[in-house]
Amino acid sequence: MLPGGGEFRRSVCIDRLRFNDDGTIQPVVQTLSSRARKPVARYTFDESGGAAVVDQTGNGWDAMLVGGATRATGVNGNAVRLSGDGQYAALPAGILWNMYDFTLAAWVWLDSPGAAQHLFDFGTGPTRNMYLTPLGGAGVARFAITTNGPNAEQRIDGTTPLPVAEWVHVAVTKSALVGTLYVNGVQAGQNPNVGLYPARLGNAENNWIGRSQNPAEPYFSGLVDDFRIYQRGLAAAEIGELVQDSKSRKEPQSLRPMRRRLTISFRRLACRPGHVLALGTA
Ligand SMILES: [Ca+2]
Predict the structure, then answer these.
(1) pLDDT at residue 282, rounded to an integer
(2) CB of 226 within 8 A of CB of 246?
(3) Is residue 82 part of a domain?
């Protein structure tokens, strides 16, 4: 139980314990597998068109564009364009069902200040949800999570609204009780006592990019690119790397065209049935 109510749980798997001569336990060093470092879901919106949005992680959390949302030039490849008039992206039910710590990150382009618009909103309705607005009631960008309506929100407020008509990277992380809001890779707000977490929203079905759980609030108007979900709170340095990686537009080594002349020759009878030929460069 937490001092302010609610609860916090974290599951850990300990690989190795080392004991001192006096029976005390040496500190446990946390390491992350390569799998844990990767996002749970990632939407690059690089499809040429259509309503289907592929989860680039291969985890199968494919999304769907609703209301005729289109694509336009993004930070890297395409982005999704949302008109502010009934268009949004719907992510699968339960995508955050088992999350305690998390990171949500995306590039956004606001057509207007976007008062009360929701970049994302995951939940079951106006009572139980978590969202990010570029311009909330306090006049600044805000992340909030609640299981009992707006008056029970736990919030992370920025210091300004999100900038308009330019690409902005925005990220929210939660690690244990500490929730942090980043804008363009720099910390813009922090709340050290965020006791709620996505798993408290249950097997939520309304997981939206560009639409609020509150039907009275406006749809998002602008562009969204490279929307990522992690099942852990990324460190500040990692958020910075995320911003730089997107800007550098690096092409993976394996996808670069090969410009070296290759000569392949086979000795007679060198390959037999069942042998596999692998091509590569030294
Ligand atoms: Ca893209």
Answers:
(1) 37
(2) yes
(3) yes
Those residues whose beta carbon sits under 5 angstroms from the ion ligand 1 are 44-46, 74, 76-77, 225
CA dihedral angle for residue 181, residue 184, residue 188, residue 189, rounded to 10 degrees? 0
- Number of domains within the chain: 1
- Give residue 78 CA to ligand 1 midpoint distance, Å: 4
Distance 45 CA to ligand 1 centre (A): 5
Residue 1 resides in a domain: no
Q: Which domain holds residue 178?
A: 39-248
89 CA to middle of ligand 1, Å?
Answer: 14
Whole-model pTM: value is: 0.80
Centre of ligand 1 from the C-alpha of residue 76, in Å: 4
Domain-located, residue 134: yes
| pLDDT class of 3 with cuts at 50, 70, 90 | low
DSSP bridge pairs for 143: 132, 156
User: What CATH number corresponds to the domain at position 66?
Assistant: 2.60.120.200
- The CA radius of gyration of the chain, in Å to the nearest whole number, is 22
24 within some domain: no
User: How much distance in Å is there from the Cα of 223 to the middle of ligand 1?
Assistant: 10
